[in-house]
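Lay summary

Proteins are chains of building blocks that fold into shapes. Our project writes down both the chain and a compact code for its shape. Here are two examples, one after the other.
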Amino acid sequence: MAWRMKWFMRHPIQAKYLLLVLMAMLGPTLLIGFCLYTLIFDFLARQMVFPEAIFANLVPVIDRVNNLLVLTLPTLCLIILWCAIVISHRFAGPIERLEKDLDQILSGDKRHRVRLRKSDDLKGVADRINALVRQLDN
């Protein structure tokens, strides 16, 4: 079967899994990042006794870390979004295709078969449906 070019489908299951994967990847990443950021700078601030020392030593470090975050955080978010889209598509694509093929069979086209890619996880289900349709056709 040809590679699908359509990454976003109207099927609600893709939105469900897209949100689930995004939350599973982005949530812990941001939480751990925030905790480390807070811990490091809180620790540094507590170790320095004088306000002048805090200003002189901590502000340049915070500026460098912030500049690094401005560059890397959007890239990280885009990578996580891309992974979430790919993973949700791997779930929703075969389900949408299976539903379309089953609708065609139910409309009376007994010669039509369910066609999925070899790498799709629901390939076994499609093979069993095709076997069932062949048995019912005989």
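And here is the second example, written the same way.
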Amino acid sequence: MRIHELGHVVLYVTNLARSADFYRDTLGFTEIARTWPMALFSGGRTHHELLLIEVGGVPQPERAREMRPGLYHIGFKIGDGPGAAKQAYQELRAQGVTIVGTADHTVTHSLYILDPDGNELELYADIGDAWRTDPSAILTPAKPLRF
């Protein structure tokens, strides 16, 4: 057996409407369906890349930066080139989205944000394709990303 690609991510959320609206309206995912207790989204690559399921409870934003076993973040590609990350940064700030960090990873420019339940998301733009010929490029230490 061999994994061919990451198919989808499923998140439990405290409030389906709030989270689904965030992923659709703020991050621009195409909503495929919303039927309580779930909503499905696609970026167009496959039938769905994201599934949200409402389970209630209270958001846990303090969990996002803890170093503990479990999910750290989910990465979503937002474009190519430094302009894509800069534009996203400006849009997210204007919408009041919590930005917890930025990084120049040489092969990507990354923004780290929290969704309404405190799940950390990496929004990244590819910067060239040096990693295709030199896979070690992805190990380059992160540098501050300045806009």
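What can we say about the second shape? The domain at 1-57 is CATH 3.10.180.10 (2,3-Dihydroxybiphenyl 1,2-Dioxygenase; domain 1).
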